[in-house]
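Question (not urgent): is this output format expected?
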Amino acid sequence: MSIRPFRVADALALREVFASSVHGLACRDYTPAQCRAWAPVLDAKAQHAWCEAMARRQPFVVEVGGVIAAYADLQDDGLIDHFFVAAPYAGQGIGRRLLGHLQAEATARGLPRVYADVSLCAEALFAHLGFEVEARRLVLLRDETFANARMAWPVPALAHGEGRP
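Got this back:
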């Protein structure tokens, strides 16, 4: 397993990871209608918009044996906007290693905190790595309502220079 920066050529493969994660993993906690609203089939225009959005997000990409298995981003304000592991790779520690990579990246950048709007199926992973629920939320997307949690992780103070002589 390796974690690397995003390449433009990755964009549509990341869409496949996203769809696999939603339809193959999140389906345990959300209805089929919710999953279709969350990860609908994309036409050519929507695929182009997806590719542009991935280029803006600049996610980290996980490869296993040369295959893209997961991805996640870390924005300048500490937001993890996307965090997805393809269903066939679930339960192998990939999500844990990817989230740990984001935490190390946040520390290196000197961010005060990292936060995300976490799906029900990912909440236990985030909690295991020190994230705490700040708020329970209901989000409306394409006429479907989703429960999720705003979770945050305070970057340790010593990581961004406080408390040093």
